[in-house]
Predict the 3D structure of the following.
Amino acid sequence: MLEQSQIKKKTMNAKEQKQIQNAWDNIAVGFDEFVTPFNTDLAEKALRLAGLQSDMRFLDVAAGSGALSIPAARLGTQVLATDISPAMVERLRARADEEGLSNLETRVMDGHTLELEEASFDISGSQHGVSLFPDMPRGLRELVRVTKPEGKVLIVAVGPLTEVEFLGFFIGAMQATVPGFTGLPMDPPPLPFQVANPEGLRQQMADAGLSEIRVERANWKMEFQSGKHMWDFVTNSNPIGAGLVADLAEEQRTAVQQALEGKLRQRSRNNGPAILNNPVNIGIGTK
């Protein structure tokens, strides 16, 4: 499992790149089943804000299994979806084929170094992708490079960790059941939260060469059916989530899921699924 210290490096050798690829490959099936469905509504909102139209060409970087690129393709847009993980791209391709989306192309590619010509896309975007990169500035510069003049760059990134309810619930359940568990390291914060501050995201986009930048706060709403459902989401959402539970014994895993069940029932007042709210930043800039 990747250590946070490894993936925070600003440069990666081939071995480290392969480690990151393998880490995402290992959770691709679970990510596709449990995470992508939560991301689609958010993606549709982001694409509307970016002004994506059917006559455009759209690039999705670090696409996962298609939460952003599938809705884009449904609009009739010509879409290229890329991800460093072959397993993620395989799941994305299966989703596109199932819907008959012949206007969606997939390629395995590292978003730090896009093997694409400059000024090729009307809108280039990434949802919970480039914002997780070990070298996010480089990833942003690559998005800008391949975007046409006057085109748009779209970034969707999670908001402040302390306001992300699904993670707060999960960390609380771990602390209540796993002796010695203290939570996530916060100095520096985990990669998903490196642009949790809207002004931080705005500055990163400006530094990459974008103008007319706007960052909007949105709610990433999640509906959990059970403690097991939430466990499956968190542990498949990211290699960091998988790493949190990698060393737990089976009885500890069961205890965490039971604690989650209690927290979710308290939230829903024992009346159906529990709704959790999580802030996200949607950044849009013009090249």
